[in-house]
Every structure is written in C-alpha cells, then in structure tokens.
Design a protein that fits this description.
The complex is a heterodimer of chains A (289) and B (233). Chain A is built from 10 helices and 2 strands. Chain A is mainly alpha-helical and 289 residues long. Chain A starts with a helix and ends in a 12-residue tail after the last helix.
Chain lengths: 289, 233
C-alpha cells in the first residue's frame, strides 16, 4: 500500500468510525442507564436516512433534512420508550423479542414507503468535490463527516460532564436505584437518553446518506457493526463507544482494502479476542451477562 | 416519624419480612440488630421503596408510603446511607455530594456543601477525586454526606461501620452521635451490639424476618446475654 493510499484509508476508517460512533453512543448509554439492548437502534439509523432523503427532496435543504429526520426519529424513540419499554425493565428476553419485532416492522414500513431499490442522498453542494492528499483524491464530504463526528463527540462529552442532566445520567449508569433514593425521578432521564440515542442514530443516517445511502437491510448491517463497537469498546461509557467505533471503523476499512472477502470475519475475530481477553470491553465498566 | 405495621415483603418466592412492626420517634435513634440474612436490609429497602412490601403499612410523617416509588419517598424527607455505601464511582466526590442537594430548610441546621466539608474535612481534600478512588472510610463519609445534603428529617443507615478500621469506625460513630444530638431521627441497622447500644435510644432485635425483642438501650445494657441468645435464634 502506498503512503497516499494508506492515509486515504486512515481517513476513510476515521470517517466510518465516527459515523458508527453516532450509533454506538446511544446504544451504549441506553444500555448503561436502562439495561436495555435496543436492537431497533439500527432501524433508527435507516429511518433517519430515508426520512432525510424525503425531506431533502421536498426542501432541498440538507441541514433541515438532518435536523428534521433526527427530530422525528427522536420522537419515535420517545414514544417507544414510554409505551413499550416502561413495562419491560429487567426483562431481557422480552426486550430482545420486542426490539427484534420492531426491526421487521420498520423494515417493512420502509419498503412500503420508499420501495426496495437502494437510494442515495445527494451530497450538499457546498461539500461536493474532493481534496488532493499526497496526490490522491479524498472527498470533501468525508472530511465533513469526520469534523461533524468529532464535534458531536465533543458536545456529548460536555453534556455528560458539565450539565446536571449529564451528571444524573452518569450516576444512573453507576447505580440507578441509589439515584432514586436521592429523590431523583430516574424515569425522566430514561426518556431523555432514549430520545437522544434515537436522535443521534438518525443524525448518523442522514450524515452517512451521501456515502452509504439508504436501502433495505441497512438497518441490520449497521446494527451488527454498532453491536461490535459496544462489545469492543465496552458498554455504558462514552469513551468506550468512541474508541470502539474508531477501532471498528479502522478494522472494517482496512480489511476491506487488504482482504475484501474476509472483511466481516476480521471484525468478529476482533470481537472474539476482546471477549476472551477483556470481557468488559476495552474501556467498559460492566460485563455482558 | 416512622411506623411499620405488619410489613410483609417478598423477594420472588421467598417470604423475607414476615410481619415487621417497629417505630422510630421523632428525634430518636433506633437500632435494628440481628445477624446476616435476618431481613434487616430488606426492612430498609422496604421503607425506602426499593422492595415494596406486599402487605402492611409504612407510615412516614403520617402518610402511608408503602408502594410509593423511592424518589417520592425520598422527596418527603427520607435519606438512605446504604449497605456497601454505593458511591457513584465514576462521579467526583463533589458531584456525589451535590447530586441530591436540596435546600429544603433555611435555618442554620440546613446542610450545604460547605457544612458537609466542615463535618468531613477529608472529603474537601478529595473533592475532585472520583468515588472509586476513595478509601472505605472516606466512601462511608461520602455516603453520609450525600444523605445529609438532601436535608432529610430521617436517615436510614445500613451498617455504616461495616468493614472499617477501628479508628475510623470510632470517628464515624462520634459523627453519628453528633447528628443524634442535632435532633436527627435515624434508623440504624447494626450487627454489632456495642455500637447499637452506644448510639441508639431504642433497640429492636430481628430474627428470621420478624422483630423478636425490643427495649430501650438502657434496659438492654444489662441483658447482653439475652440479646446474644435472641440474635442467635
């Protein structure tokens, strides 16, 4: 691999990893706080991409598509949490069945509304074109993906570290029962983190739209990668989700470039190795039970 | 302040509390003494609402709180210093303290961060450290400080001296005595007879999910042998 190619692949891995982070952050924090693995989290991403496509077509405004799609999906997440998850805390098997069912509902809904052919979101005109890096071309849009992913990571970190809501969420990840003994209604924060997770996933769906597009099965594909991220990085922490995403982004990108036919296998090998060597993930605080 | 009337609590199928009756008068310290597995912590968890009772009444300040969520019960002026301390380990000492801070009183008996730091100076030194970096004694101070900052009228303390070195244990007992003198109502779970008799006005003895004996600390002072027998029941 030439130097230029190598750098391009690093940037590709970084942009893909940061896209995964948008998904994994919510997945990990929802699990950390509420003990729920939401398998429909990948569906939020896919619905975000499709909704973004529709809003973009009618308004031709990328920012509106981004914020609009993410807000709609956040609302969907909020309703799901309030209506369906409230009664299922600590009932893992029921949660898995429920969220698995939702995957199929959203999948069929998407096929019904947007058809089965793969769609692609147009790149915003401002971010079209490419830059030359050591003689190789790199799309400006991917650079924008990296920048926005880093910005979201920074904002999330500030939110968790510096705000009272963030402090309560961190305390809830440590010991949510004890938080309630301090006269704090933790269920309110369950709703906040669920809606935020759905928002970020859909945000990722729109951001990734010009590169990855929107198609049936995208929900599953991205879910598997996001689950790989939380296994690798560890559950319940933003740091774990961040570094896990970067790592999985790199593994996926480089293995696709080096040995295309085994690319998915390499991620599973990494997952297996980490589960054997450090079951709580690289930076996680809790073990998958 | 608090009254339990025929409280029955289950963990799944196991009938842990089998009709517990006890009372904590305003401004008094009451100890609940007994061996491991007799239902002391379940009693505490039933009162704060972690494990709501299946039957019976828990009257707090004249209101039946049985079945209310813990956050509502705590809001009424109850605080918990739990077994095992349960510090938020990824939060700093300061964050642990201010998390539940409520300014419910305006007089000088009210607790704020400064006053808790005065009570436990070592917490002030460690204010930027994370909960997981503290020693056992410091964690216990933090658990007590965290409870005080909710400005409660009543504190549940579940074995606050468990696993501490003798020196620090003695120091903390002194702090609990000071709290008692300030008029705080406390229900204290203990395995140690001496600690219970030193701190409490009234002592209940618990065995197999029931209160089997009770008496004032002065009265029980001369009955230590009887107490030991009761505890071993």
């Amino acid at each position: 691999m030439e130097v230029a190619q190598f750098i391009i692949q690093i940037l590709n891995g970084l942009s893909y990893g940061l896209l995964l982070f948008l998904l994994a952050a919510g997945l990990s924090l929802i699990f950390g706080l509420m003990g729920i693995i939401n398998l429909a989290h990948g569906s939020y991403y896919m619905l975000g991409a499709y909704l973004g496509l529709t809003i973009m077509k009618t308004s031709a405004n990328f920012i509106l598509a981004l914020v609009g799609a993410a807000t709609l999906v956040a609302l969907l997440g909020l309703i799901m949490e309030r209506v369906f998850f409230r009664g299922l805390y600590k009932q893992e098997l029921d949660q898995v069945l429920l969220t698995f069912g939702f995957i199929y509902i959203f999948m069929d809904l998407a096929k019904y509304l947007w058809g089965g052919t793969p769609r692609s979101l147009p790149t915003p005109p401002l971010l079209e074109g490419s830059l030359e890096i050591f003689g190789a071309a790199f799309p400006v849009y991917r650079l924008a993906l990296i920048v926005s992913g880093l910005a979201v990571a920074l904002l999330l970190r500030l939110f968790l570290e510096k705000t009272r809501t963030g402090m309560i969420i961190r305390a809830g990840v440590d010991d949510k029962e004890m938080v309630t003994a301090l006269a704090i209604n933790i269920k309110l924060y369950f709703s906040i983190i669920f809606a935020l997770g759905a928002f970020l996933a859909a945000f990722g769906g729109v951001m990734g739209g010009p590169v990855i597009g929107a198609y049936p099965g995208l929900d599953f594909e991205i879910l598997v990668l996001a689950l790989a991220v939380v296994v690798v990085g560890g559950l319940g922490t933003l740091r774990g989700a961040f570094w896990g995403s970067i790592l999985v982004g790199f593994i996926d990108t480089f293995s696709k470039a080096l040995f295309p036919s085994f690319s998915m296998l390499t991620i599973y090998i990494a997952m297996a190795l980490i589960l054997i060597l450090k079951p709580s993930g690289l930076l996680g605080r809790m073990e998958l039970s | 302040m608090l009254q339990l009337d025929e409280v029955h609590t289950y963990y799944g199928d196991s009938h842990v509390l089998q009709g517990v009756n006890l009372e904590v008068a305003r401004g008094s310290v009451v100890a609940l003494l007994g061996q491991n597995g007799m239902g002391k912590t379940t009693t505490i968890h039933s009162i704060i609402g972690f494990t709501p009772p299946a039957r019976g009444k828990i009257i707090f300040k004249g209101i039946n709180i049985s079945g209310l969520p813990p956050s509502s019960i705590a809001l009424m002026g109850m605080a918990l210093v739990p077994q095992g301390r349960r510090i938020f380990r990824s939060l700093t000492v300061r964050e642990n303290l201010i998390l539940g801070y409520r300014k419910t009183k305006t007089d000088k008996t009210a607790y704020d961060l400064e006053r808790v730091y005065e009570l436990f100076p070592s917490l002030k030194l460690r204010s930027a450290n994370r909960g997981e970096q503290l020693s056992g004694g410091e964690q216990q101070m933090l658990a007590i400080g965290r409870a005080l900052l909710t400005n409660p009228d009543f504190i549940l303390m579940d074995e606050p001296f468990e696993g501490l070195a003798p020196g620090i244990s003695k120091e903390l007992r002194q702090k609990v005595l000071e709290l008692k003198k300030s008029g705080m109502s406390i229900l204290l779970v203990e395995q140690n007879i001496e600690a219970a008799l030193q701190l409490a006005d009234y002592v209940y003895i618990m065995s197999k999910g029931k209160i089997v004996h009770g008496g004032s600390a002065a009265q029980l002072q001369g009955e230590k042998d009887i107490i030991k027998r009761f505890i071993l029941l």
